[in-house]
Structure prediction request, 96 residues.
Amino acid sequence: MLDVATFIYETSSHLACSRQAARRQDGRTLRAAVLALGDLSARAGADRMAALCNGLCDVLRAHAIATLPSPIEPLIDAIADEFEQVAGDLHVSSSA
Prediction:
């Protein structure tokens, strides 16, 4: 299992990267960022977040690298929302 600080830092970084890649329509970078998010989520035991990442990866696999489905942002937002919940839960459990 990851430590809380590492999980929060790395996840925040990959979320920012995924948002930038989506804005640039950079499917390759977006896919890499979402795969990294899914891996971090699974390692942290954040099963719902990992499932959301896997779902987005499935959507991305179904499209050519150069063409992203529209709108992709709500899927990234769902991952970010789940991250906020997980991060809050981790902070509570680590301070107990």
The mean pLDDT is 88. Residues 73-95 form the longest helix (23 residues). The radius of gyration is 13 Å.
